[in-house]
Amino acid sequence: MTDTSKATETQPDVDRGISLVPEIGAHHDASSAHPVVFDAADLSVYYGSFRAVRNVDMAVHQHEVTAFIGPSGCGKSTVLRCFNRMNDLIEIARVEGSLTYHGLDLYDRDVNPVEVRRRIGMVFQKPNPFPKSIYDNVAYGPRLAGIKTDMDDLVERSLRSAALWDEVKDRLKSSAMGLSGGQQQRLCIARAIACGPEVILMDEPCSALDPIATGRIEDLMTELKSQYTIIIVTHNMQQAARVSDRCAFFTTEVNETSDTRTGLLVEYDRTDKIFSNPGDDRTENYVTGRFG
Fold this sequence. Notes:
about 30% helix; Rossmann fold; globular; ten-stranded mixed beta sheet
């Protein structure tokens, strides 16, 4: 079979504007042995005139799991969607500040957001397989992107990477809708992997799953970080403590006049420090269950 690394080889960008070829190793942070993939500086997100999230500063490192935690409405998912420009799909949304991907401005007008989303995959809260066969779910993205490869091999490699191959190899032509919830979510991960991303974003991927399926997804994240950079939004603090290398705690500021809420990044650090010795009282109150 083809080596897995071939799936993420950079293809020449033709008529895509600025190249998104990663300059691996070009940017390092002294706090990690891994290079920086994303660097956010003074990042804010607006919906019309309303500022939903303000002043986010963080560096996301390659081959690590970064978790976003915090109470509902604090902007975790809003920030996550900045990393693959999903907020572009909301007409009134705009992003201010700086967000770079391997040193390149992710929001430069010449960067193609479709190419961004190929390189930075997304797995949503609720499993959302297409009403197609298991095989066609995985093959859909590569076919759409015009990826020229042995599709049978790519489907198998993607399903193996998502720890699903052994469970579905004898029914690849069956409908994906017949899979269990946990299997459907792993299929969605395989579908994201098939397009050859470097980064996988996960927006509460286990919230609709039972504890056994959740455990499998968590084990899978730990395995996948050797090949991918992963950012996860979760309300489950135990999950964040188990799977993440770094953790970002967000909270909300309430405007007492208008009763609007703006998300704020309170603290971002190694996960063990966030949970054992946080630098902000608000973080400590949240992780110890005193609020939120």
